[in-house]
Amino acid sequence: MISRIWYKFLNNLGKWPCDRNMKSIEIFDGLYGKGLDIGHDGEYTFKSDNITRLNIHPGNNIDVVYDGGIIPFEDKTFDKILLRCVLEHVNDPESLLKEASRILKENGVMVIEVPFINPVHAAPIDNFRFTPNGLKIILINQKLQIDSIFYTEDHNWAIKWLLWQRLKESNEIGLKYLLKFIFLKYFINPLFLRSRTPDEKNFAQFGCIVKKVNYT
Fold it and tell me: Structural domain of residue 100, as residue ranges?
């Protein structure tokens, strides 16, 4: 009984406060028109009620479940599309972008967020990392053009995640685990890993506002 209580205490104490930046969601939610959130994970809600939430798995607040291939909507259905931390988890990002471009209206807007520096997560389905220029190259092939770039997480955010993941994977429990956690959370983090405003030289994750263009 005591061991179970101790384990529960340490497990709850050990939840790393590595909060996610919500900027891409806020930008998408503030755009006008009918929207589609591809890969919605159920962890956030929208102010707008004109948004369809799509995923390959059924779950909390998922409106449409699809097979990961053809997105089940007609061409030029949506004014805006959100792809938040999705492209790194698919086998063929260009195919997904092609489908997203197909169902996006002319002059529609896509909000995309992707990782640059992240530990492997959701393994084994964690396939890619991106730079702004690398993402730009694959977007151009799908008649999509980056209008602006924003940065959502800094280097220290990624370091905290890496350190915390290493600690969680140590398979330790008890006083040694607790001391490591206290050292990391209350000494390393406040003194050396304070979050800074991410920018083009200090980012672990970034987003972009993408417009569908008609190349002639």
Answer: 19-154+197-212
